[in-house]
Each structure stands twice: as C-alpha cells, then as structure tokens.
Amino acid sequence: MTRRVISSPADLEEGADWLASRSEVFARLLPDLGPLPLRRKPEGFATLLNAIVGQQVSLASAAAIWGRVVAAGFAIEENAAGASDAELAACGLSRPKIRYTKALATARLPYQNFADMPDQDVITRLCEVTGIGRWSAEIYVKFALGRADVFAAGDLALQEAARVAFELPARPSEKALREMALDWSPWRAVAARALWAYYRVLKDREGVI
Fold this sequence. Notes:
Layout: H1 9-22, H2 24-33, H3 45-53, H4 59-71, H5 77-82, H6 85-90, H7 95-107, H8 119-127, H9 134-143, H10 156-165, H11 174-181, H12 188-203
C-alpha cells in the first residue's frame, strides 16, 4: 500500500487545492492564509519527547523547558534513560512528565520501522508507551513521518478553529471533529495545517508546536 507523504511545499499545495475544490469553507479560508507551513520534524526519540514536553503547557513554556532538556543532553535517548528524577526536574519537567520521559527512553521504540507501517499501526504502537496519548502519537505521525491523512482531532486549537470557520454552535468534541475530518481525507493533515493557520489569525498566536 502506498502512503501519501508530505515532504515539500508542493505536496501542501496539492492538498490545499484538493480541499478548496471540495469544501467551500477551505476555498474561502486558504487564499488568506498564505503558504501553509511544512512543519516536518526529524524521526526518532527527540521529536516524540518534544511532543511530551509540549503537552498541556503553553508554547512559550514548552520551548523554554525543551531548551533546557536539549542543553542537558536529555534529548538523546540513552542520556534520558540514565537521567535522575532530580536532573529531569531541573529542566522544568513535572513529576508525571519525568515518568513519561523515562518510559519513552526505556521503551526502545523501533523508530526505523515506522516509515513502513500504516498510520494506525504506528499510532497504536506509540500509545502503548506510558505518557503517549493519541494527540502526541498523531502529531508524531503527521510531522515526523509526514503522513498526509492524519488529523489530531483532540487538539483544542483545531476544535476552536473549526468552530469559527464552519460556524458551528459550539466547539466540536474530539469525536465530532474526527467525523467532520473524514470529508477531508486523504488530505486531513493539510486540513489541520490550514485550521492551525486560521487559529493563528483568529488568536494572533500559534496553535501547535
């Protein structure tokens, strides 16, 4: 099975054109959003740990903590596995995130195999690790593996952007937004980038790391 991968601005343009041709809302929004960001990230431990660091904190806080994690050398799997709780706490990690970091570092995930696996299989495997929820797994699959048809419906920024863009009476639940996003397949990851860009316009701040 061939999996569509977003690896260049041309891929984003193709997805955006497809969305605009099938959705009046995206046709209206996309011209004002400018080029959508590629946001590709390296595959492996560091990117997944970065997603954990970003859970339930502001982008500014996440960036500050991540900077300390990198400076301490804990963005390297072996170093994180051997770090003490006190050393990780000194980086700004909470007690739960210290546990999640240790769990990820000792899980020895087969990152090199993920490129050949279906989206849902990778998400399922990632979610087996303590501290990796569906949001973090989908963010990894979307940006590290570049998969074009992954949509993190539990993301509050996406939910709020969809509420405004589609003139919904209330912010959609994760389940409701996931069902909405079925109409945007096979380019759900491009739809997410567009909604995040729209959220930035609405709130004058970023909606995803």
